[in-house]
Known about the structure:
Shape: globular
Number of domains: 2
Largest sheet: 9 strands, mixed
Strand content: 5-15%
Amino acid sequence: MDSDVGFLGLGVMGRPMALNLVRAGTGLVVWNRTAARCEPLRAAGAVVAADPADVFRRTRVVFLMLADGPAIDSTLGRGTPGFAANVRGRIVVHMGTTSPDYSRGLEADVQAAGGRYVEAPVSGSRGPAESGELIAMLAGEPSAVDAVRSLIGPMCGEAFVCGPVPQALQMKLAVNLYLITMVTGLAEAFHFAERHGLDGRRLLEVLDAGPMASTVSRAKARKLLDRDFAVQASIVNVLDNNRLIAEAARAARLASPLLDVCHALYGETVALGCGEADMAAVVRALEARTAAPAAAV
């Protein structure tokens, strides 16, 4: 093996995460379906592999930051003879967000093929990914978790061990439930203030001065104030996360009334053509409801 670490998936989150590893001196081998996204990594000193199998051949730990289960399965060759060759003797680290049931099944397949598996979903959007301040949640066999934890410092400000798979992903869904409902409430507060003629900057100042202020509230309040919906976490991505949380809630027979309202609002935001905008753009769905006839609200 030529390097220790591989990284598959260089999207909005994956590319800055991988860049932080390279800049910290990690010997990294990378691959992305859209090859042009690899060029900043090549310039920073990473090796660009020809295909995912090449990444596995060269490394012992492989991070996956891929969009969903089908993308992971395709990249790993799951269901093909190449899967075992890829994962045998490696630690496969799933850093994206999928259903807990999917992750449980992937762990079983990786272990059956002679590999080890760690869940390591992260909390945070593009900004924390760029600054290396993501929060990681880890789950898996303890020695594998320890090996992964020793590598993720350049990407993550903190890491929390959550137990066996799929408890890291379940923790991530709980965190995302809070995030989604919080940002939606913040958007509604700004919409309420605007409709009452209040000064949005003063609202931001009041929120920042009080106990409800957070890094998220400050970032999203500024976006709402400036009508700046450049993406950090997209509406489409949030809607998909909302669906995963709802499915997990239904499977556990849990009521999730706030989440259900958010699901409707983010779906309406997509229908308004704002799917690739930042999640703060959910305010557009609130505005559309306000503008609709009372009977339709």
